[in-house]
Amino acid sequence: MLKLRGKASVKNASNDQSKLLKITRNKHLPVALRPKHALLLSAHDFESHKASSPNGEDISSDFASILFLGSQKSFPETVPILPNSRDVFLLPEDFNYLAEGDILRLNPATGNIAAVFRKETPNNSILLTERCNHLCLMCSQPPKNIDDSWLLDEAFDLVRLMPTDTPNIGFTGGEPTTYGYRFIELIETTKRNLPRTSVDVLTNGRAFKDEQYAASLGRIKHPDLQLGIPLYSDDPVRHDFIVQSKGAFDETVHGILNLKRHGIRVEIRVVVHQQTLPRLVQTCEFIARNLLFVDHVALMGLEITGFTRANLDILWADPHDYRDTLSEAIEILRTYGMHCSVYNHQLCVVNADVRDVCRKSISDWKNEYLPECDKCTKRPECGGFFSTQILHRHSDYIKALTS
Amino acid sequence: MSRFQPITSFDQQSSGDSAQYDLLPLRFTALDDSRYVATNIAGEYLLMARDALHRFATGKLQARDPQYVELRSRHFLSDAHSKMGPDLLAIKVRSRHARLADWTGLHIFVLTLRCEHACPYCQVSRQSEDKAAFDMSREHANKAVALAFRSPNKSIKIEFQGGESFLNFDLMKHVVLSAEAVNARLTEPKNLAFVAATNLAVVTAEMLNFCAQHDITISTSLDGPVDLHNKNRPRPGGNSYQLAVQGIEKARLRLGRDKVSALMTTTQGSLSRVREIIDEYLALDFQGIFLRPLSPYGFAVKTKFYRAYNVKQWLQFYDEGLDYIIDLNKRGVPFREYYASTILAKILTSHDPGYVDLMSPAGIGIGAVVYNYDGSVYASDEARMLAEMGDTTFKLGTVEDSFEALFTNETLLQALDESFAYSSPMCHDCAFEPWCGSDPVFHWGQQQDMIGRKPESEFCVRNMHIFKGLIRRMEDDPFVRRLFTRWATSC
Question: If you count Cβ atoms within 10 Å of the first and of the last residue's Cβ in chain A, which end, N or C, has fewer?
Fold first, then answer.
């Protein structure tokens, strides 16, 4: 698992607030661009520079920050010779993955760092808030009732910083629509700054029960926007129970109808666990009969983090044990001509008839495999595990497939 | 766990008493002694035991009743938990009737009434002689093409009928070329398709070339094994079967495998031979069969072929055939029955396949229209069959009339209005109404009544039996359920 957030020690710390900086390795970056960049240096970069400029010319002037990547022991000796640089972050080895073009959030005062955008990954997901009007039994990001609207402010800055050839970004929460019309503004800003970037939003969809709200999102005419909305059961009581909120089912269904009325792509997401399994097949029938016009349906495996760990005894179901139910559910969706996928399931624990809709759905930074997987001929096509599945719970039936 | 409430605390219905719920529009019909089929207004069904249905309908169902959740999720009832039912039902009903707004899509051109076959069951009353009297004229054809393009439907299908349509091949070519020319001049060209109904006996390589160049698909007749087919479909030389089979092969080679379809007609001689008939279709590489009874028109009535078997006998034939087809699928051979597929699409989806006999409002005029060889315009294929028997009730006018005059014909509007099954006596109360149609031409022909007295209607008996049979089969066997769902969704 990649560590996206952490702490570093900071030399020559300024009084700056938390700031977003783009990483560069280019020491010769024009001075005009340097205030927006953090220069990433390895111990090797530094040694070679010292050799070529014995006078100790400061290579780092005007950069907003210096990120020093190296083994811990190289720090004490080298750092003092950057006397004119401010905000020199001595990064732990966890951050060795950082590369040109990545965007970091740096806080010189606290030493907090977070990789908020990685140029080379297809899975850039931007957390907009930790507030939510649901309290899902299996929430991987347990909600907090705090004012974290700075995250939204930062998202506005972030979409302006990202390269315009970014293929995809995701906005997640918490519940992004907590911000009301400011969320709509964010989508509009994203469209203006990243017109060729596909955008996925994870929302419970309830806010769109207000047709004006759905219409305002539709009017943006974003060319490649999809809302991922959970619908956990065809039975409103069961859905409301799983999300721990009365009236959620009706508002979500109403929201989906309004979104489709206004031409917005919608993906329905169903997490498969003990509480959804009793009606998984009926839920898929309900979707096929009533919401045939949604653009995609995803049946998803549990990520063993957040509330899922606390509620594991009422949630965990071994995919091997429910494989026939999963096949039946997928067959219904497929027969009705719906685009559908299975996320977060390993190929060896599903029946052969659903393998072609299993996607590599787990973000690279938290995607791992078991030693058993090394022997598997299907490993290149398999999405593997969440790091938290490896750590806490995965199917008892993981077995290398041999063709 | 204290942050989380148990599922019971999300259920607003008290556990001991009758639940508080409102009935949404629903109907029910007995399936057998103990079970009822209940349907909602969008045609989704649920099987219920008699006593459960009684409790449900009288407001005494409890929320913990196992079917309560099903009834709510399929929009038979609405309670405090969900008010979205009516909205979702409305969307589904609108989808089912989406075709209505498209207006007439199928335009049938009877190019000639001449035919070199002499089938005793001919329902169109073919003629053998006199080219001048029974061929459509170019002038009439031109006017019919112009009328067809007046339909607002974005897809126009022109079907060539006979007699034997290829006996007037010159006119077929003329219609195809002029329709293509008209279409090319439109600012928004329509999806234009052609199909020719033919016995394939007189089709030449030149004709097939033309079909290939202009994407004309072929619909032919095949009644079963050689002896049965040739007995049903006599022609000089007694070789109808041989010519049909050769023609199918040639047409497939020239046009493509999926461009040739065949229809069978049941005669008394077919009744004991449904498996052989199906095997014939299998052997000829067809993907399915349409098991079709004779219709009470033309020679079929005059020669008493129509009365040679009754609806009960035909249904036995159909059931045996359907079960045989299901069995084939169980043995790994994909094959389907098309009439069942059409009905299953209505049962299991919100998409109406648009089969003219099973539409309500009826498909006459607004689903299909016929331009007859003599320039008269009829509301359906059956309507012109009736006309050959001397009853021109469903004549809308002639190709000389305006589009507006033809399609606001008083008889047509009256027939559509009166026969609308949702408001017809008995149909209104029938659970199967959302899947059924109102065939005003059939009922007029049989009973001189466009609505029809349903207890005496073979149309009603036949379809009721088939509806129940389809439900029973898929309720009893999950394999059949999956098979039927596949038929329904690819219809």
Answer: C
